[in-house]
Amino acid sequence: MTLRPGVTSALTVTLPEWAARLLDDQRPHTSLEARMKLAVDLARRNVEQATGGPFGAAVFESESGRLVSVGTNLVVANSNAFLHAEIVALMFAQRAVGSYSLRAEGLPEHDLFTSCAPCAMCLGAVLWSGVSRLVSGAAREDALEIGFEEGPVFDASYEYIVERGVTCLAGVLRDEARAVLQEYRASGAPIYNA
Amino acid sequence: MTLRPGVTSALTVTLPEWAARLLDDQRPHTSLEARMKLAVDLARRNVEQATGGPFGAAVFESESGRLVSVGTNLVVANSNAFLHAEIVALMFAQRAVGSYSLRAEGLPEHDLFTSCAPCAMCLGAVLWSGVSRLVSGAAREDALEIGFEEGPVFDASYEYIVERGVTCLAGVLRDEARAVLQEYRASGAPIYNA
User: Fold this and answer.
1) Distances in Å between the alpha carbon of A153 and those of A140, B13, B129, B143?
2) What confidence score (pLDDT) does residue B6 get?
3) Candidates A9, A86, A140, A166, partner chain B, best to mutate (most B CBs within 10 A)
4) Which of residues 58-97 of B touch A (CB under 8 A)?
5) Would the N or C end of chain B have less CB density within 10 A of its end CB?
């Protein structure tokens, strides 16, 4: 098709190669801590590799602990404010299972692990994703403390998604996850969406 | 790079050709109603062309009325629960201006017009997008009425984003926008994310 110069009709989201390679290791992540450690490692390596902000996320099959997808914050590199780690991990998980819902018929239950409590956008996305469980590391206050915004998330927001069948756990490996945020601020790297 | 079979490290979002072609017409949309009419037309045509759900959105330069990007709901076709019309329009707008914020230095102010009040995810995305104004057509209740979910959106959610400099207008061409939703339900098409 012919479009005006400058008009793009396709937009590609690419995982950093180092992150995509984590999927090569398919040993099960059986404990909560092992799953969260992967999300926090994604956050740390995303900063070290200069591929984005200090946030990481991963989707696992709840029972088997099989890793389904990974995500890191890709906002700045992609000029795309919506590529938070959670959205990236969930998009690739849905691609992997071939459905717009991780609760589609015949699928096992899925967990989303995220290195930091989700912002308002990502918490909404959790509801549409079909995950059965949301597990976070660092708290909203830990992100605010270094100058990131989190948007309109209230206790009632969590109540809403819990009522719709999503189990929410917070504060798993919080100290380790918060440390990545602190190191990011100390490095002087940009706080976008401040 | 070599990945396990079935692992994809890139994911492409493609606008339907009929929608991308709307950008060929660069006559300014000067009134609120003209801008909303485009969003509602996108919603209607998305159903007629069988490219997705009954939701459309567009980004305009606030003052000039120049059309910057369009979006339609692409959830089912892309197996991607996050491709709501608003997210699609905002992603392509950021791509068009080359920044993760539509408020980046040197840019004019931007409006997001959406045929239906945004869900929780998209309302969060509005905050990250950098638009100065959010204008919606059909109301949350109009979407709920036909069985769609909207997620945890509260009066306080709007207060939060208004306090951060986003002007919100609702109910522009509401009847026309609601009619598209009603026609969609009458057609028996799927209510995903119910």
Assistant:
1) 9, 28, 17, 22
2) 53
3) A9
4) 75-76, 78-82, 87, 90-92, 94-96
5) C
